[in-house]
TrEMBL record:
PROSITE patterns: POLYGALACTURONASE (PS00502). Gene3D superfamilies: Single-stranded right-handed beta-helix, Pectin lyase-like. This is Polygalacturonase. Keywords: Cell wall, Cell wall biogenesis/degradation, Glycosidase, Hydrolase, Membrane, Secreted, Transmembrane, Transmembrane helix. The active site is at H296. GO terms for biological process: cell wall organization. Its main location: secreted. It comes from Ilex paraguariensis (yerba mate). Belongs to the glycosyl hydrolase 28 family.
Length: 465
């Protein structure tokens, strides 16, 4: 152990001793540490996380030796010049491939296919592979979108079981003209927006589907979410690269809702909203080896909007890097909701210049008109372990803001070390009605966490799902 590390440990223990036994000292909100440990830690942030487990089954590949039937969209009349509408050719290729066991629907390399909003419907025969080696492009903005087509979604896969979507190709949402709609958040005067149509399409949506694999693809510039999974189960997402500008609104990388048994591995996401967002009704979600940022971090929520009930459990985020983001690992809920978030683990995560590395926000609101309410989503059994790195000094490194009437319980912090990205002044964490324990000494020390469990929880407000 280096001298600087020993100094920090001794200083922190001495600080705790002084604050506990000499309350008249009025411990300051600011703590000071030598600069050297900060730079030593920052130099390790770029080290990639440990690789996530590989899939138990390999991805099918297309070659002349494959016995599977190959349905090349060019054979169904697709042109692939980036301007011609190839939607009907893709529909015919889909309908043909859907009826054949272990079929491969091939989007060939060196072609760009423009598709209108389309629903690809199942069920299909087992083992269907949607092999994207070329480029898929959406219409270029709202003015190019047919009036009769839904503006909430682009490519939808409905009631599909056992499909793999894979390849080295690109899916281009061409979202810039959508982001610039007058209704979208702008950096204008006071962040004002103007009235008008605001629907924007999700790029790829899976709805009521199962046993899905999505692997190896590149996505960029979706008008809204890049991937969305609704009412799905048994989903493997592996080795994706998702990119959109940092200021692009609502461009979540991967969003799941009412979806369970999900694995999200080995992916890179840089966008204008959450890298991964987990909505109501999700459980058994394993996220590993994600490099995230610039972004809004990895989020559970928002939950409980419009006094709704939300249940989320058994979520693990591990072996990941979050950099240059507004948030790190976040749980966000609206006041007035019900249900619970429980059994969540954030482990082995490196933070690089993140504004809110660890945040629970039970007062989430996207306007100025939100009023205090007594009911809330109950948050419990949350573990933060081995979370290290640097934070943007505009916000405290830990922000645990729990409901006035429904406290957070059993929050556990272990081996947490967060230093300012600039300067030597370490801000004190913020806690409100947050109960939990420190398994190890943290940097900075978390004096504000309440010990034990609250004396009572209003049973009418706590729905443990």
């Amino acid at each position: 152990m280096e001298f600087s590390q020993v100094f920090i440990l001794v200083f922190s223990v001495f600080s705790v001793f002084l604050c506990c036994f000499f309350p008249s000292l009025h411990c300051s909100r600011l703590h000071y540490y030598p600069k050297q440990p900060h730079f030593g830690l920052a130099s390790q942030i770029s080290i990639p996380p440990s690789p996530a487990p590989k899939a138990a089954f390999p991805s099918p590949t297309v070659s002349s030796s494959d016995s599977a039937a190959i349905f090349n969209v060019l054979s169904f009349g697709a042109v692939g010049n980036g301007d011609t509408d190839d939607t009907q050719a893709f529909k015919m290729a889909w309908d043909a491939a859907c009826q054949v066991e272990s079929a491969i629907l091939l989007v060939p390399n060196q072609y760009s296919f423009m598709l209108q909003s389309t629903i690809f419907t199942g069920p299909c025969k087992n083992g269907l592979v949607f092999q994207i080696d070329g480029t898929l492009m959406s219409p270029d903005g709202p003015d190019s979108w047919p009036k009769n087509n839904s503006k909430r979604q682009w490519l939808v896969f409905y009631r599909i079981n056992g499909m793999s979507m894979q390849g080295g190709g690109l899916i281009d949402g061409r979202g810039e003209k959508w982001w610039n709609l007058p209704c979208k958040p702008h950096k204008g005067v006071n962040g004002t927006t103007l009235p008008g149509p605001c629907d924007s399409p999700v790029a790829i949506r899976f709805f009521m589907s199962s046993n899905l694999t999505v692997r190896g693809l590149k996505l960029k510039n979706s008008p809204q979410f890049h991937f969305r999974f609704d009412g799905c189960h048994d989903v493997l997402i592996d080795s994706l690269y998702i990119k959109a500008p940092a200021q692009s609104p609502n461009t979540d990388g991967i969003h799941i809702e009412k979806t369970n048994d999900v694995k999200i591995f080995n992916s890179i996401v840089a966008n204008g909203d959450d890298c991964v967002s987990i909505g109501a009704g999700c459980f058994n979600v394993d996220i590993r080896n994600i490099t995230c940022g610039p972004s809004h971090g990895i989020s559970i929520g928002s939950l409980g909007i419009y006094n709704s009930r939300a249940c989320v459990s058994n979520i693990t985020v591990t072996d990941s890097v979050i950099k240059h983001s507004d948030n790190g690992v976040r749980i966000k809920t609206w006041q007035g909701g019900s249900g619970s978030v429980s059994k969540v683990t954030f482990n082995n995560i490196r933070m690089d210049t993140v504004r809110n590395p660890i945040i629970i926000d039970q007062y989430y609101c996207n306007s100025k008109g939100c009023t205090n309410q007594t009911s809330a989503v109950f948050i419990s059994d949350i573990l933060y372990a081995n979370i290290k790195g640097t934070y943007d000094v505009r916000s405290p490194p830990m922000h645990l803001a729990c409901s006035d009437t429904v406290p957070c319980t059993n929050l556990t912090l272990s081996d947490v070390e967060l230093f300012p990205a600039h300067g030597q002044t370490i801000l004190e964490p913020f806690c409100w009605n947050a109960y939990g324990a420190l398994e190890t000494l943290t940097i900075p020390p978390v004096f504000c966490l309440l010990e034990g469990i609250p004396q009572s929880l209003p049973q009418n407000d706590v729905d443990r799902c």
